[in-house]
Design a protein that fits this description.
The structure is a single chain. The protein is of the alpha+beta class. It has a domain at about 80-175. The protein contains four helices and five strands, in the order αβαββββαα. The protein has helices spanning about 15-30, 90-100, 160-165, 165-175; strands at about 85, 110-120, 120-130, 135-140, 145-150. The chain has a five-stranded antiparallel sheet with strand order 1-2-3-4-5, sandwiched between helices. Strand 4 (about 135-140) and strand 5 form a beta hairpin. It starts with 14 loop residues before the first helix and ends in a 9-residue tail after the last helix. This is Lipoprotein.
């Protein structure tokens, strides 16, 4: 006897049938595959004619005239290139006064042998000191505001080398003690 409908197992469709139904339901939405990417034609660039440049030329060669140094290589003398007698401004006593009590004792006899010689506000003096060696003095400033730069048997100090006018520097540094012959 056939089973009654209440006891009958439910009907199941085969898997292949269900798959076919699913594909049919989806196929109207899929349509064709996506179109391949379009290849745009390359832009057309009008060709430009090649520009031909003239061959490079070198600049004209000018004759070179050598520049020769002047025939005299001696420096041009300035006012300070030659020391001259100070004509009493400052007097030798004023230079000696700068030395008394600092470099020389107050009671020793001193006299100017040469100078003072002046150049651009600087003075150079050679002094004879009783019982001692000859003494050189370099001073600077106006006769009323004279300042001692250095004094001794060798007055070629750093300040004299660096700042003194050439004439004073020559007297203090190049000649040793005393004045050069003919000065």
């Amino acid at each position: 006897m056939p089973p009654d409908p209440a006891h009958r197992p439910p009907y199941r469709r085969p898997v292949a049938a269900r798959l076919a139904v699913a594909l049919l339901a989806v196929s109207p939405f899929t349509g064709c595959a996506a179109p391949p990417e379009r290849q745009l034609p390359a832009p057309v660039v009008p060709s430009t004619p090649a520009v031909t440049l003239p061959p490079p030329t070198s600049p004209p060669v000018l004759p070179v005239t050598p520049t020769l140094p002047p025939t005299s290589t001696l420096p041009t003398p300035t006012v300070a290139a030659v020391a001259t007698a100070c004509a009493g401004r400052p007097p030798a006593d004023r230079v000696i006064g700068l030395l008394r009590g600092n470099v020389l004792p107050r009671d020793v006899p001193v006299r100017a042998v040469d100078g003072p010689l002046c150049a651009d506000g600087w003075q150079y003096t050679v002094l004879s000191v009783s019982g001692h060696e000859e003494l050189q003095a370099v001073s600077r400033g106006t006769p009323d505001a004279l300042r001692l730069v250095t004094a001794g048997t060798d007055v070629c100090s750093i300040e004299v080398k660096a700042v003194a006018p050439p004439a004073i520097r020559t007297l203090a540094c190049d000649t040793g003690a005393g004045l050069p012959p003919g000065a």
